[in-house]
UniProtKB/TrEMBL annotation:
One of its GO terms (molecular function) is dihydropteroate synthase activity. Pathway: Cofactor biosynthesis; tetrahydrofolate biosynthesis; 7,8-dihydrofolate from 2-amino-4-hydroxy-6-hydroxymethyl-7,8-dihydropteridine diphosphate and 4-aminobenzoate: step 1/2. InterPro entries: DHP_synth-like (IPR045031), DHP_synth_dom (IPR006390), Dihydropteroate_synth-like_sf (IPR011005), Pterin-binding_dom (IPR000489). Gene3D superfamilies: Dihydropteroate synthase-like. It is an enzyme of class 2 (transferase). The keyword Magnesium applies. Its cofactor is Mg(2+). Its EC number is 2.5.1.15. It comes from Limosilactobacillus urinaemulieris. Keywords: Folate biosynthesis, Magnesium, Metal-binding, Transferase. This is Dihydropteroate synthase.
Length: 382
């Protein structure tokens, strides 16, 4: 037996074709055909597939079904339990998994986003960041916070030495920003080699210093907008977080505008000789012309409209001002609404979660992933 992936044909109406394309590209569904040797086997396979609560039909010795990509690992586990001697079947599933694997190559690390999301911890060593500004100024405070995030499950820790909070901020000189971030980078590099090091900066000299110091990721809120930045990235292997910002723009169709922005941005990055597997997309929630208004909520909802680009998408809404706007919550009291919004975005395809609260986000991911991978089979030990 084997499982193959079907492609959309032109045998259906334009609307039906559009619906199928939407299921595949936005909702990350797979059109699969399970080819069996006998009709009797196909009937048994159909019953097996029905356990996954998906649309399924049996046509002779073929079983066709629509299957969520996020549950492919669960399918592979249960197939192996039942047909562990069918190497051809197992290999066909492995090939489908490999075909849809989304990689993020970031310096020393390669993250497989379909298998495991990235918990991306925020460490601002600034006096004026909107949430944690001033908290981590001494070496002892920085060390304690890094250790706390690592133990809570962070895969990446991002050091920020320049705030870009809404409502205005004071820009610091590159040398001052470098001075702020280097102690944390050195601690991470020497004491936590298993953790990817990121730096949040839009300044070329800071990027140069960070890369020279051995960081794995650069997060640029200005989307690597100069030839000098792109040339620097092309000479390195660091991961890149490229962000859409609309602080100076009004949009008619927000979704289309963001799609066009990233299509152009990715094209520019690729033209500079940079492997797009190094790139993560950030919609820029909180960077609207009027921060914390309904444009931000629309971006929370339409995050899955970027899945067709086949790049990891960052969820970067931790403790932001929508909690104050909707519920009049102080920044210290916004954890619950942050987790709710992060869950909605995670379910829509946001696989890199940039957060202040690592422990709670790790619990969120484990809970959602457990639910999404849980299917009841009487013959297993569930």
């Amino acid at each position: 037996m084997k499982i193959t992936e079907k492609t959309i044909t032109n045998n259906t109406s334009k609307l039906e074709t559009a619906i199928l394309a939407d299921q595949i590209n936005r909702h990350q569904q797979l059109l699969l055909t399970w080819e069996c040797e006998k009709v009797e086997t196909a009937a048994m396979v159909e019953q097996f597939v029905c356990h996954f609560d998906v649309p399924v039909v049996c046509i002779g010795s073929r079983v066709e079904f629509l299957f969520p990509l996020q549950s492919l690992k669960a399918l592979m586990i249960h197939v192996q339990e039942r047909w562990n001697n069918d190497r051809k079947l197992l290999t066909s599933l492995e090939q489908i998994q490999e075909h849809h694997q989304i990689l993020w190559r970031a310096g020393r690390f390669t993250f497989k986003l379909n298998e495991q999301p990235v918990i991306y911890g925020i460490l601002n060593v600034t006096p004026d960041s909107f949430y944690d500004g001033g908290k981590y100024q001494s070496i002892a405070e920085i060390t304690r916070q890094i250790d706390k995030m690592v133990k809570a499950g962070a895969n990446v820790i991002e050091v920020g030495g320049q705030t870009t909070k809404p409502g205005g901020f004071t820009e610091v000189e590159p040398q001052e920003e470098i001075h702020r971030i280097m102690p944390a980078i050195n601690i991470l590099k020497h004491d936590y080699p298993q953790i990817a090091i990121a730096v949040d900066t839009y300044k070329l000299p800071v990027m140069e210093a960070a890369i020279k110091a051995g960081v794995d990721i650069i997060n640029d809120v200005q989307a690597f907008d100069t030839n000098q930045k792109l040339a620097l990235m092309a000479k390195s292997e660091v991961g890149m977080v490229t962000m859409h910002s609309s602080r100076t723009h009004d949009y008619d169709n927000l979704t289309v505008a963001i799609q066009k922005f990233f299509e152009h941005n990715l094209g520019t990055i690729a033209a500079a000789g940079i492997n797009l597997e190094r790139v993560v997309l950030d919609q820029g929630i909180g960077y609207a012309k009027i921060a914390d208004e309904y444009q931000d909520y629309a971006m929370m909802r339409n995050i899955d409209q970027l899945n067709y680009l086949h790049r990891p998408i960052m969820v970067a809404i931790s403790r932001k001002g929508f909690g104050q706007k909707l519920f009049n919550l102080a920044k210290e009291d916004r954890l619950d609404v942050t987790l709710i919004a992060e869950t909605a975005m995670y379910l829509r395809g946001g696989r890199v979660l940039r957060v202040h609260d690592v422990e709670e986000t790790s619990q969120l991911v484990k809970m959602i992933d457990t639910i999404n991978s849980s299917y009841w089979f009487r013959s297993t030990n569930n």
